[in-house]
Amino acid sequence: MAAHPAYTARFRADLVKPGLRILKPGLRILKPGLRIPVGGAIPQSAEGMPNEIAYDEATRRLLVGTGHVENVPPRVWAYEVSGKQVIRQWFSYRKRDRERPLMGDRRPPSRLCDVQPDRWIAEYTQDLMDLLHVLGLLVELEPVQAGLLDRICAGATVPEADLRAAGAFEKPAAAPVASPPRRRRAAHPGEQDIV
User: Fold this and answer.
1) Backbone CA torsion sign across 79, 74, 31, 130
2) Looking at the DSSP assignment, which residues form a beta bridge with residue 56?
């Protein structure tokens, strides 16, 4: 219920804290129409690694570097979650230049970020197709979700007094803080300390 446009529109004032929910399809969902045509494959060479993604609304093509996917509906391309365009966000972690700007006092990214494929791998293409299929299904469900949200909002609510009586607003007791493990000093030179 919380990831479709009717929810965001209805509760926009309440959704002031930004955040992104990551969509990770777990099932292979086949939706007719989407396809990578002959000659439209995304190159799998290091030189052909895409760095740009775009959308051509006139041809309904999702352009991934020099490759493309046909029959992508405009609403699938534009689909957002928490103010982030899902396809652009997904691609940003798979494109050639994955460098992220430092924000605030944040420490630099881990060097593990450098351990990534230097080319577009077949799994990226399959994941992209899965993502497009799922977003297409979500777009189709938006009217049903909006209707359900209307029924929920028009339904009975639990009065604040009942929630207070049930302890819903009470702050939970603080959990005890675990003490750090004790170290035993090595007894002989050459031995290591044991935790």
Assistant:
1) negative
2) 61
Instruction: Give the bridge partners for 68, in sequence order.
Output: 63
Q: Which residue has the tokens 């760095």?
A: 51
**Residue 36: count of CB within 10 angstroms of its CB:** 17
What are the tokens at 24?
Answer: 């990770």
Nearest to 90 by CA among 60, 61, 53, 122: 53
Domain range annotation of the chain:
5-98+118-154
**CA trace torsion 115, 118, 123, 127 (10° rounding):** 80
**Mean pLDDT of successive 10-residue stretches along the chain, which has 195 residues:** 67 56 44 76 92 96 95 95 92 86 66 82 93 93 91 90 90 75 62 55
> From residue 124, how far is each of 7, 24, 47 by CA, in Å?
30, 13, 16
